[in-house]
Amino acid sequence: MGSPRKPAVAATIVAVALTASGCGILGGGSPRNLDVISVSSPRFRDGAPLPHDYSCKGGQGNPPLRWSGTSGAKSVALVVDDNNPRTGSAVHWVVFDIDPNTTELAEDDVPRGAHQGRTTYGKAGYAPPCETDGNYRFTVYALNAKLNLAQDASLADTLRSIAGHTIARGRLTADTIE
Prior knowledge:
PEBP-like_sf, single chain, YbhB/YbcL family Raf kinase inhibitor-like protein, YbhB_YbcL/LppC-like, 178 residues, Phosphatidylethanolamine-binding Protein, 30% strand, alpha+beta
């Protein structure tokens, strides 16, 4: 999958702005004291390679995920991104308004009632990663409100809304692709 430059540049600007503002959406940390969400997958461990099936050459869609630690949330969001030193930042998937009682995401699935925002590539839905040397982050956010954005909301609007409502965060990272 080729990455169009204009959306990639826009996503990078958004990522830098959000990271600098302290939300930590795409960055490594946040100055706010956020509660911690535990994120795992039955298909790979934190720091292990992303199974080939969930890449652009695999065809399985998104990997299954599980999380805990979202009590008190009004909704949950998921952002899948990478920060490849060679190709730059990219957002591969944004899902928001997930029911706060949901604790897992099935393979190639979006929870009922949840919405998907646009990715770096300009379309809503899981955009499987292709770069074998990427650092793919599956970050789950507990939010203090439903975002109530439209399906296919812009990447900038979605990330800004997630950043403004985050009360807890957890991340599962895949280093490279099998």
